[in-house]
Amino acid sequence: MRDNLFVNLALVFIPFSLTSIGGGIAIISGLQNEVVNVHGWITETEFVHLFAVSRTSPGPGTMLATALGWKIAGWSGAAVASLAFFLPSSLLCYAVFRFTNTHREKQWHRVMREGLAPVGTGLIIAGIISLFRLADGGLLALVIAGLSCALFFWKPKFPVLIVLALGGALAVLAWAWF
Question: Confidence band (pLDDT; 50, 70, 90) for 59?
C-alpha cells in the first residue's frame, strides 16, 4: 500500500491539513521539505513556480496542494491532494467550533486562542524563510520584502497593488542597473 502514489499523497497532505495553524502559508516549509527533499517528487524550482501560480490563482491561498498533486500525479493526484488537504481540516474546524462555541467566554478558551497565535506566527515565518531560500532572490529580495513589511506596519491599509508595483519596479531597476 505504501507503493501507491495516491496513498502517499494523502499521507503527506493529511497531517499538513491538520496542522496548518495560521493558514496555508504556515505549512509551506514543511510541505516543501516533504515533496522536494523527502519524496523527491518535484524540484525546488518547480515548487517555487507552483507556489507562485497558486498564489496568483483565484481561490484559497492553499491551492498549492492542488497544484502539487496535479504536477505529481495528474488530475487524479490533484483531486487526492485537494481532498486530503481540505477535508480533514474542515472537519476538524467544524468539530472544534461546535465543541468550543458554547465556551467562548470562558478563561480556557481565551488562553487557547492567545496561545495558538504565536504558533501560527512562527509557522508563517518558517514558510517565508523557506521560500526566500528556494527563490534565491538575494539581498534585493530581502530589501524589497523588508520595505514592504515596514510600509504595511506603518500604513496597514496601504493598497497592496501599489506595493506590488513598487516592488516590481524596484526589482526591474536593480536588475537593469546591475
Answer: low
Cα 42 from Cα 34, distance rounded (Å): 10
What is the value of pTM for the model shown? 0.64
**Which of 69 and 138 is assigned the larger pLDDT?**
69
Radius of gyration of the chain (CA): 19
Cα atoms in the 13 Å half-sphere on the side-chain side of 95: 7
Please provide the distance, in angstroms rounded to a whole number, between the alpha carbons at the two ends of the chain.
53
Q: Which residue bears the cell 476538524?
A: 92
Summarised one tens digit per residue, pLDDT across range 109-145 is 788 878 877 877 777 777 777 777 777 777 877 788 8
Q: What is the DSSP letter of 137?
A: -
Contact 85, 16 (CB under 8 A): yes
d(CA 139, CA 15): 34
Residue pair 48/128 in contact (Cβ under 8 Å)? The answer is no
